[in-house]
Amino acid sequence: MKNWEKLKLIKDKFYSYYRMAGYDKVDSSPLIPKDDQTIFFSNSAIVSFKPYLDKESPRLFNIQRCIRFRGAKDMFDLEEQDYMPYFNMMGSIASSKYWQEVAELSQDFLLNTLNIPEARLYADISSKDSELIKNFGKYFEVQVDKLPDSEYHWKFGLDKIHGRGVCFSMRYGENQESDLGQIIQINYENKPTNYAFGFGSEKFLMMYENHKHFYEATSAYDFTKDMTSPFAWRYRSSLAPLCYLYSQNVNFDNPEYSKQKKIVSSILHKFAVVTDLLDIPQERIERDIKLLSLYELNGKTDIPLLLEHIDRAKKGVRHNKEFQLLQQKLNNYSR
After folding, report:
1. Quick count: other Cβ atoms within 10 Å of Cβ 175?
2. Any alpha helices (H) in 51-179, and if so which ranges?
3. Domain 3-67+88-211 sits in CATH 3.30.830.10
4. Distance (Å, rounded) from C-alpha 308 to C-alpha 327?
5. What are φ and ψ of residue 288, in 5° steps?
6. How many CA atoms lie less than 13 Å away from 244 in the CB half-sphere?
7. pTM reported for the whole predicted model
8. Angle at 188 between CA 146 and CA 110, to 5 degrees
9. d(Cα 9, Cα 163) in Å, to the nearest integer?
10. Structural domain boundaries of the chain?
């Protein structure tokens, strides 16, 4: 079974499970959230739940395509292979009076629907949150203070709203472990309103199948396994966000999206540098974009426009000092 099929199966299982549990599906947030100036792009499942955070929410769930970008300084780090800017996140939310149900459903889904062995999953909670330790310790193995204190708290960019919560981690491979998702207690004016549960499908698949790198659990890896260069993962990591960015009918020339346009231009430039650095032919780039759009986005990517913008970004790139420095770095790495 290909990665894209496994990821679709995870999403289908989540959809069916929470439907059967009586939750209603809420529409995913668009690429650029409406009336939300706190983020440039939808970056987590909680985005579509924001209208409910200051009040008791109905029992809802969603499946959200997410984009998160880091700064340019590490975009060409040869050793940094576990960061992917595009992923899918599953999420649910319910009123705080249903906290026990949220705990039970998340435990049952992770252990019995996704079939994570109980010994491989644990909850990490801040020692300051004794209530959460008491409540969720009934359902999960609990460890305390394994992460920096900031990792247990969320602000969401909203006034008077903050979250504190449970971070799920999963053991995999040879004595490795990493974060999988969270249960977050949402507080408005320091009073609990809701509990939200969420996790990433690609991250789950990476750990469940004991992959070494995140990109090995992505749809793009299905048809780029033949690429062995240390920069190949950068090619894969750019394919999905570009396909998604160009599938949403957003006019980035609109002054309203000037900040997003700068990010898109930066990603196009980096993609142009990498494809030229690896001498990837235009036919291969077009094939990979078509396949990823088909498997991940139901073929909705505006492929002609994306290819036009990639071609524009590639002009003169080989004379760029950045390209020449990276070429030397790649040559040194290969020796």
Report:
1. 6
2. 99-108, 130-136
3. no
4. 25
5. -65, -40
6. 24
7. 0.91
8. 45
9. 30
10. 3-67+88-211, 218-334
